[in-house]
Design brief:
This protein is of the alpha/beta class and 241 residues long. It is built from seven helices and eleven strands. The strands form two sheets. Strands 3, 4, 5, 6, 7, 8, 9, 10 and 11 form a nine-stranded mixed beta sheet that branches.
Length: 241
């Protein structure tokens, strides 16, 4: 029998169900949602939505936007849809079981203003692949490569539309080079650190479709204080304050 867990955000205003033993969202997705900053009335696409955590947070914080969540794994898309229904967000969020490789404008009723994505960060057949298929597909480029994600984002964005992603710091060069290849000019970059004084594990990058070159390095994101507690910014993103 499939088992689920239930977690709440924003003082119980958002309920998120996940597979107990399948792929579970990490802080990466929460950071992505926290720093996406969609504009009022933006049409937003989340590529690889998993259980729907990013659309749930974005829709809760930005009630005027319209969001599409794309997920290639049927069982994950099903639970994402259930999460949207449980939180009464059907009018704001649409979940589609679809491979981003084949994504077209008509799939989501036209181009979008903002694409967010936490793509698989390991090349297929690199390192040990998890036996759990949900986790393997989420972490490794099995059903789609980094190029596939960037190509889809570029294809589906309006001119001057924004692409925001979170990715391992060790693959920063790959991300920045490939973003430019697909006309998603890197404009802003933040490094993400567990604590102050430690090396970056992740990066948060924003690109703009067909923009002029010019990258700004913004202030780093620190996850934990010295005492091991979340920083004030992280607590706010998690809806703890």
């Amino acid at each position: 029998m499939t088992q689920f867990t239930a977690d709440t955000f924003f003082n119980g205003q958002i309920l998120v169900r996940q597979y107990k033993n399948g792929y579970r969202f990490s802080i990466d997705a929460v950071l992505l949602a926290g720093y996406a900053s969609p504009r009022p009335r933006d049409r937003v696409l989340d590529m690889g939505t998993g259980c729907g955590i990013v659309p749930l947070i974005l829709a809760h914080q930005n009630p005027q936007i319209q969001i599409y969540g794309i997920e290639v794994q049927k069982e994950m898309a099903d639970i994402a849809l259930q999460n949207i229904q449980d939180n009464c967000m059907e009018s704001k969020v649409t979940i589609l079981n679809h491979n981003i490789v084949n994504l077209k404008h008509k799939t989501i009723a036209g181009p979008v203003d903002l694409v967010v994505s936490n793509p698989p960060y390991r090349k297929n057949r690199s390192g040990r692949i998890c036996k759990n298929s949900q986790r393997a597909i989420a972490r490794h480029e099995i059903t789609a490569t980094l190029d596939d994600f960037l190509d889809a984002a570029s294809r589906i964005l309006n001119i001057s539309g924004r692409f925001i992603t979170i990715y391992p710091a060790e693959r920063m060069v790959d991300m920045l080079a490939q973003m430019r290849k697909f006309n998603l000019e890197p404009k802003y970059l933040r490094t993400i650190h567990s604590k102050r004084g430690t090396g970056a594990k992740l990066i948060l990058v924003e690109g703009i479709k067909k923009s002029r070159p010019g990258l700004k390095i913004k202030e780093p994101i620190i996850i934990y204080n010295k005492d091991g507690e979340y920083t004030e910014k992280l607590k706010k993103i998690y809806g703890m304050i």
